[in-house]
Design goal:
By secondary structure, the chain is an alpha/beta fold. It folds into four domains: 2-69 and 453-503, no CATH class; 78-180, OB fold (Dihydrolipoamide Acetyltransferase, E2P) (Beta Barrel), CATH 2.40.50; 196-312 and 385-448, no CATH class; 506-750, Metallo-beta-lactamase, Chain A. 50% of the residues lie in helices and 17% in strands. The protein contains 25 helices and 24 strands. The chain has a seven-stranded mixed beta sheet with strand order 15-13-11-10-9-23-24, with no helix packed on it. A hairpin with a 2-residue loop joins strand 2 (101-112) and strand 3 (115-126). The radius of gyration is 29 Å and the shape is globular. It starts with a helix and ends with a helix.
Length: 760
Amino acid sequence: MRRKLFICTLFLILGTAASYFYFLFSIIAVAVSVLLLKIVKIDIGQTIYKVIVCFFIAGFMMMSCCQLREMVLYKSFDGQDKEYTGTVESVKVRKGKDSTMQSEFIIGIQNFNNSIFGTKIFVKKYKGDFEDYSLYGRKVIMKGKLQIPESNGNPRCFDYGMYLKSRNIYFTSSTAHVELNDVKPNGYNNFKRYIFLRRELFIRNLKCDDETKGLIKGILFGDTGQMSENLQDEFRDNGTAHVLAVSGLHVGILYSIYRRFRKRKKSDFFTVSFILLLLCYGVVTLWSVSVSRAIALIIFKILADKLNLRFDLLSSVSGICIYMILKNPWIIFGADFQMSFLAVTAIAFCTPYLSKWIPEEAAAAISIQAGIIPYVAYTFNKVPVIAIICNIPIVMVLSVLLPVSMTAFGISFIVKSSNLISDAVCVIGSLLIKLNEVINFNGLFTVDVVSPNLFIIVVFYLLMFFMSSELLVVLIHRKMYKDITKIICIILTIGFIIFASEKSDFDRAFAVMVDVGQGDCLHVKSKDNRNIIFDGGGRTEYNVGEKILKPYFLHNGKSRLEGAFVTHLHTDHYKGIEELNRCFKIGKVIYKGRRGDKYSIGKGVFVEILWPEKQDFTIDDENENSLIFKVTVDGTSILVTGDIGKDGEARLIERYRGTGILKCDILKIPHHGSKYSSSDEFLKETDPKIAIIGVGKNNYGHPSDEVIEKLHQKGIITYRTDHHGAVGVIKERGRIRLCHQRRKRSEVFGTLQWTIKKVY
């Protein structure tokens, strides 16, 4: 039964994903998978095949309904300034840019015009006149405009919109006004609010520095809002970041303590008290995915032991996954759900096999790493090479810190002031920070990797689970070696099908205008896989090089750049390259040059500087110092114009008038579409077929309406990164074709939207 339920769970996930992504490929994958079950001559009953198909259809229909609901919500509420009533479900207070305290809320909306709304709103950077933490669990009235979270701007990169939907959040608001409702909260919300406020008071009263407080808050409650970014990066590099997100590890430590005491005192009251403790801990940590799963598993285990029933980890985690997907199908796209599912599944399959040769605790640790590291490499592009070794001392300290912290937190309900135990919490927390710093050793033992091929990832997991399953043992025992070969072949086929479904138009693009927000970044690829960029975006308050450019290249299979060309030294053009150069391999950075300088990169890529005659770094207007590049890739020309204005355009025209050198197929519009650029004469002289504008949210009015209108009137196909995300240029059979990452609102609903279009 346990394998059957697991298979049903996999098909439920597959059906859910099929509704959003590629229906045809999913149908093929289902057919191949059912064929797999038919080929192996194990009697599992004919009914299971019908059940599997039903689970697939159920997943498909649930996600389709979610997409339909999403369409209705977006059409009804996007961008509208209205009043909403709801309950504050989460509060985080952060220090803003101007050192003022700013709050972030998640508000669960109960009604709109007396109708069920049933979604959540993420309110960003709200500044209130009262103690913000006091809003937790309270009924509030929110006034403001709702915005749809943007999807990922670059291919295969982090999708913020999907992340929020996995938490049932469909809207954000940064202009909201929040005020208390007269309606008193119910008993459950009052209880949660009381616990939440006690938790904040406990952290405030600790006598230690802010960094240690932030660490303790992260370890005890799963809230890393107060932790510095550098400290979080150290934990990620060591492969120990899981200690910061309250997960099965934390609950497992509590369970191990319970088992030790249970051996001495076998009392029902003690067992019930421990279950209540777990439930309270779940409330304190806001019932994150990993905590919910871990607590449910342990309660199942305790009940199974009490009733003398066999506990099966794989069946339990499968049942919990089914429940979570039924509650919110979008959850399958959340990293916490994926990592939790992979980790527990790896334990269920691999630990019994490994424990024959090594202790069970070590076998479980190795199983978790085997289940997590390939996923981490694919998703986060990091491989902590000594993660298992690093985890040993970290987990040992955590095993002491967690129960001591929980004890101190419990005592804080009785004793308001600091005590000996809370002081011990600070000491152990500081020790953990120092220990992690020593282990980190400036990231020496963490390797940045390009995202492995999805074929390799899928095949790895399928083979790992097959090789550690009872099925393999049965087949070997019966000497059914042909069936083993058939299964391996089908696994390879499934891997290829999923790999084929992931292929993107951007893989064939020779040039990509990367979405870096307000700024420019043009990525050019040669036929022999040499890569260069022109500008790299940049912001004063955000590390574009590390947070956007590095993930973009690693996710898309690029481990180095042959060169980086800088048009001029303004923040939104050069800073991203400067930041990228610290954490990524760049052959040469070119920010100086003059007319006539030429470069050849790889096969078929030629770069020529058209302007200026000579750079003058003493001038006040750095825009007029912009290097103008003409890039030719396999006969297709791109003109990279930096931030020149109309005066610069005029000088450029005067120098090259009648030569045809300025003519191009693709024009990177000067100065992000400023009204002080893109003159009629310049557009006539360049005569582009396609115009691309690198732009993000800004207060400069870029791009101007008159420039956009001018481009449309001249029949120039125009793309802009704030609307379209990354824009790729593809040349096939001598014709230029463009692709873009961010689809229109009418195109974001996967298979459902495609079906609706076909019907109507």
